[in-house]
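Recall that a protein's primary structure is simply its ordered list of amino acids. Everything else, from secondary elements to tertiary packing, is in principle encoded there. The following example makes that idea concrete.
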Amino acid sequence: MSTNVLRTADGWWVVRGDRAVPVGTKATTTAELLADRAAVGEAAASAETGTPVADLAALSPVTTPCRVVAQMVNYRSHARDSGFTGDIPPAFFRKASGSVSGPADAVVRPSHVQFLDYEIELGLVMGAPLPVGTVVEEPDLPSYVAGLVITNDVSARDVQLTRTQFYESKSYPTFTPTGPYLALLEPEDFTRLLDLRLKLSVNGELRQDRTLADMIVRPAQALTLLARFQCLDPGDLLLTGTPGGTALKAPPKAVEKIGALLPPAVKWKAFFKSQAKNPHYLHAGDVVTATIATPDARIDLGEQRTPVADAH
């Protein structure tokens, strides 16, 4: 059964129900913690009563700097929302690790960004080096992936679309809320990955709700494709795509055809004028809640709850 680990300013904790037991480790980074699994096991088996989880201020369980890589359009429902038809070629992009923030930290909208969007994603935390050229089969996943985290690939859509700029639009500080838990998996837990259900709500309204069965490129294949050109190390993070339900959706086909005839500046002005009427983009005061778990809670990554604020 998976073991949930929490990080605070005081160190690492193993979560047991509504209480947490400190891990006796000198590890300060995620990679160092993963190398000290014996200490995690000792805390999990400890007879200590522990501390109420509610009294702990959780930080991101993925420490930085690290590599943060993300898959693009990797759920069938998101592909439909985005207007894709036919086969979708696998694609990756990088995010700055400076965008990683805690599971209760505010998502801060830069003053020049008008269309702020959410994307719940399952994060894979690497537990072993993935050299370039590695081929990962399904049974090999436990050899490379140590655990799972909730992530939110927050996106400045006006920057992303007008500049075709993924790196900037998804890399502002606080644009990758991560945690609260790092679920360290046992080999048998990997057979349950497709049962994981991703749910994201804004102000209590459910926006995204899909299982990993909706994925196009699943984790083993994704790591194989990524390893064609990118190595990963313990503690690095791979975001595996988001399901449908984001604020951004492709315009109707007829509108898209008309837009293709317009100069780019005119097309984007018209598009964002229509997007301004879309109430689903994030605004200051909104609260984004995200959960990822199997139905039986054998794997449960906790609840991420992030307010939205404007930059000052």
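The mean pLDDT is 93. DSSP finds nine helices and 19 strands in the chain.
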